[in-house]
Amino acid sequence: MTYLDGFSDRGSFVDPENTAEAVTQDIELMRLVGTLGPEDREVLNLHLAGLTHREIGQKIDTTPKGIERRLARIHTRLRDIVASEETA
């Protein structure tokens, strides 16, 4: 085990078993986000970075309500993909 193996990027100790699970979840999330188009990925990334709907709208030239609707569609699409994979 190297010096950094047990530590998160915030410097706190992380259980290696939980870390492996988190990495698996991160990989799954990246795969799901990869199914989105480039515009939807941009909106999602800006949202996850903490920007408000207004700030995102200013960046991509749309309204905050348009961003809210787009994020709802993204959420529905990702949820539907997961649901269809669980029933397959």
Secondary structure blueprint with pairings:
Elements: H1 16-33, H2 38-48, H3 53-60, H4 64-87
Could you describe the 3D structure shown?
With 88 residues, the protein is an all-alpha fold. It has four helices and no strands. Helix 2 (38-48) crosses helix 4 (64-87) and helix 3 (53-60) crosses helix 4 (64-87). The radius of gyration is 17 Å and the shape is globular. The model is unreliable at 1-11 (pLDDT under 50).
Question: What attributes does this structure have?
Answer:
single chain; 88 residues; mainly alpha; 4 helices; 69% helix; 0% strand
Give a summary of the structure in a few sentences.
The chain is mostly helical and 88 residues long. The protein contains 4 helices and no strands.
**Which geometry do the CA atoms define?**
globular
Number of discrete helical segments: 4
Largest sheet: none
Radius of gyration: 17 Å
Give me the secondary-structure category: mainly alpha
**What letter string, H or E per element, gives the SSE order?**
HHHH
Cα(first) to Cα(last) distance is 39 Å
Oligomerization state of this entry? single chain
Report the sheet-strand fraction. under 5%
Give me the count of strands: 0
Spans with pLDDT under 50 lasting ≥5 residues? 1-11
Helix content: 55-70%
What's the overall average pLDDT, rounded?
82
